[in-house]
Amino acid sequence: MIQPLILASSSPYRRELLERLKLPFTCISPDVNETPFAGELPQETALRLAQLKAQKIAESHPDALIIGCDQVATLDNLQLGKPLNHSNATRQLRLMRGREVIFHSALCLYNASSKIMQADVVPYSVKFRQLSDAQIERYLLLEQPYQCAGSAKSEGLGIALIEKMQGDDPNALIGLPLIRLIDMLQAEGAAVI
User: Quick one: pLDDT at residue 1?
Assistant: First the structure.
């Protein structure tokens, strides 16, 4: 019997990334509190939430392989969450202009039947351009990235905000590190190619 594969996410961007692997899967949105714990490091928050999301879905799908993901953006160790609105996004982008932001993309593959969990955090560094207030406003009006950590969608017009990117997997910036996921799937015997 082949285990069903579930992406524990409501993100259309993560779904699009996973579709690249040509594996059958379903998406189920986990209902978890994403508030960071006091004193928790950004990568710890991301990893804890990725694992929590996978475990939450496992409660109702005990035979599945479940992919949990979370991303926390940081600027000088300050966590930048999803802005949720225009005002917060404006504030974030003004703070980030001309500076480097680290995106901590956590990934978890949980085999609900064997209880084996693989988890990792894949960092990705982004240096933002020195943006004017007018450029920030224009970008936000066009893209409205209010559900994206750090207020920018690199897979869309947000690429125009970026001066330089560095990391092992560009997919990590979008929120699903595919290179690491392939390793995890293969360890579970799920051949990608």
Answer: 43
Decide if 193 is inside a domain.
no
Active-site residue, selected from the candidate residues 70, 76, 168, 183: 70
Q: What is the average per-residue pLDDT within 70-95? A: 91
The 10s digit of each residue's pLDDT in 49-64 is 999 999 999 999 999 9
Rounded distance, CA 87 to CA 81, Å?
13
Neighbours of 9 (CB within 10 A): 23
70 noted as active-site residue: yes
CATH of residue 137? 3.90.950.10
